[in-house]
Amino acid sequence: MSYTSRNIDLEPAITDLRNRTLARLPGDFSRLVYLASSRDLNTGRYSHDGLTFHFSETVASKAMALCHREIFERLVYASLEALIEELRNYISSTNERPAEFLKSWKHLGSYRVTIPSECDELEAEVFLSNVKMALAILQTCQKPVSQDGQSA
Amino acid sequence: MSQLLPYFGLGLLLLTALVLWARQSLTTRKGSVELSMPSERPSGVGSATPPRDLGERIFDPHDWDFVRHETTSEIQRMFQRERTVLTISWLRRTRRQVSFVMHTHAAGVRRSKNLQPAMELKLLFSYLSLVMLCDILIGLIWLRGPVRTRRIIEQTFHWTARLRAAFEQLIAIVDPGSHKALETGFNQGTAQS
User: Fold this and answer.
1) Residue B177 resides in a domain
2) pTM of the shown model
3) Structural domains counted in chain B
4) Rounded distance between C-alpha atoms, residue B122 and residue B23, angstroms
5) How confident is chain B (193 residues) per 10-residue block, as mean pLDDT?
6) Interface predicted TM-score (ipTM) of this complex, two decimals
7) What is the domain extent for residue B59?
């Protein structure tokens, strides 16, 4: 990971965010959803009470934006198989039923809001396409299970 | 549909000759830089992960191998549709970015007093080859899909990447100002036509 071009002031905040918050989440997809949900959709600013307390609101927001982009890029360049595994981990970390989760994500397109504000247009396209594929594949894996569940 | 294939083949052959010619004349130039793939560029500002070429990601054969072996035919068809859209988007963007830089360069050249005709000619051929290659690939993918034309795509993708690198290097030599715009455009994907 390259630190060379980053603002030095952000480094402690980024390290703090990674070690204290992001490391506790199970996988990159969970981290992506967490960071996206910490962002105000109206302003694009991120909020994190702990980080704001130790640093400042601006530094905390910028550190979160950088980590968001970093994790997003990792997922864009991850293979489809790895992305499916990430998504599977995320689903199992929630308390929702996988079938319902997949149906909801597919129909509502909830994953669209996980894209960082400043990202390459084509990278976003690749990510959305891959998540769409991953959801469809996971849903086909779910089908026999849910049929069994219905018949039981 | 298959009647068009010989024309594509002929076009590709012509392009190969052009690429080889442009590449040879660039590498034999004294003090020229070695040809490198665009993915090997240094990382951009704020980039946390090493920049990789999005084209390589889209054409990654592992995804198709996984989909072919692990999923149903319905999913395989969906994958082909999705990849067709992404591949065409990538090719269109490459074409648009190169055209943007070429137009910027052409505007600068009109005012330049130190015109290098031989270099300009090479740049023009390199540009035209790249644009033609993108158009041929778009046509081929649109007609047959990225998976059916996988072998051709794999080969021509490397040509496109090399040609783009050659174009970048030529621009860097002839017009460093436009080269900066090209780098920004390729790294951020924001160059507009």
Assistant:
1) yes
2) 0.73
3) 1
4) 9
5) 63 62 49 34 39 80 91 93 90 86 78 75 83 86 75 70 72 68 52 35
6) 0.82
7) 54-188
